[in-house]
Amino acid sequence: MRFHRGMKLTRHFFRHISPLFAFLLLSLLPALCAGAAPTPKKHEFLVYVGTYTEEGSTSKGIYAYRFDPRSAELTAIGLAAETTNPSFLAVHPNHRFLYAVNEVGKYKGEKSGAVSAFAIDHATGKLTLLNQVASRGADPCYIIVDKTGKYVLVANYTGGSVAVFPVLEDGRLGEASSFIQHTGHGADPDRQEGPHAHSIDLSADNRFAIVDDLGLDETLVYKFDSAKGSLTLNDPQLPSTL
Fold first, then answer.
1. H/E segment holding residue 8
2. Cα dist. 212→3, 218, 219, 220, 240 in Å?
3. I want to staple 67 with a disulfide (CB 3.0 to 4.6 A). Which of 45, 101, 156, 184 is the partner?
4. Which of 48, 15, 10 lies closest to 29, judged by CA?
5. Handedness of CA 59, 24, 82, 79 (dihedral sign)
6. Which residue in 136, 162, 137, 165 sits closest to 149, CA to CA?
7. 160-218 pLDDT, tens per residue?
């Protein structure tokens, strides 16, 4: 999620309430493995919370909880992984890996954010960093895993772009298999001076990627090839910019 210019007060308000809730995404998966202290129960779920860690926040990354659906209680596990601005999270369909955007404007000297891959320890809830790759655009704010589990799709807010990354057999991410740069602007010069891709989702049949771009005031539809990890505009006759 990206907090836009008109939402700055809201973003800081949440940070002062609690660094854990600057942005929250619940990723639920069964905690089936035993051996942790305390030992997880079979009916419990792991809950992962992404946060903002910069601009005065005391948060350090991704936090983990256990959720009991019978009592609706959350039990804090603590810091699962230390990483910068993991503002949006996605869990792999096999429940072994978790992916996070790192919503920053610069990564290794380039105008790009990053995407991090983690292995999930079901017994402890802890996350182990597998690798990190450039998101190909500044301030990535949204991430999903396709239904085959072979690709991760990312929306870069400030960069105004979307990218697809292959998931390797060990859960690590490869370099982008597809990248699309949006161009143009909307009617509001303060908030729509350029493209700002702020979400990317897949259709139920995994054939189409739907991208919302606040800067363009448009929802764009791309064909998604799950064999190649590629995106192509669904209809070339439809304008992709204003």
1. helix 8-17
2. 14, 6, 4, 6, 11
3. 45
4. 48
5. positive
6. 165
7. 999 999 999 999 999 999 999 999 999 998 889 999 999 999 999 999 999 999 999 99
